[in-house]
């Protein structure tokens, strides 16, 4: 319930962001509950769901995942650079044979 309370507090200062579309199939009872809350607050179902997802911390988790991926990519490039001289040594050895 705390997530919903935090989301609803945001409507006092909510700004406008670029939007994308997402379709979700939900239980009829859940849809009715969402519809009831949204009608009472005068907000769209899309906005409520988007804010609940945002409040869940998914953006922070996505940032962490992207940082880990970037770190792995940087590490791979670094390893390739660190061992690139071995290829040159191997080529020289083959030429000397």
CA gyration radius, whole angstroms: 25 Å
Please count the helical segments.
Answer: 4
SSE class: mainly alpha
Count the E strands. Answer: 0
Helical content class: over 70%
Q: In whole angstroms, how far apart are the ends?
A: 74 Å
- Sheet-strand content, in percent, reads under 5%
Number of domains: 2
Give the averaged pLDDT, no decimals. 77
Low-confidence stretches: none
Shape: elongated
Q: What is the ordering of alpha helices and beta strands?
A: HHHH
Structure description:
It contains four helices and no strands. The protein is elongated and about 80 Å long. Helices cover 74% and strands 0% of the residues. The mean pLDDT is 77. Helix 1 packs across helix 3. By secondary structure, the chain is mainly α. The chain folds into two domains: 1-11 and 24-56, no CATH class; 60-97.
Primary descriptors:
mainly alpha, 2 domains
Summarize the structure.
This protein is mainly alpha-helical and 97 residues long. It contains four helices and no strands.
Question: Topology of this structure?
Answer:
Elements: H1 2-9, H2 28-41, H3 45-55, H4 58-96
Helix pairs in contact: 1-3
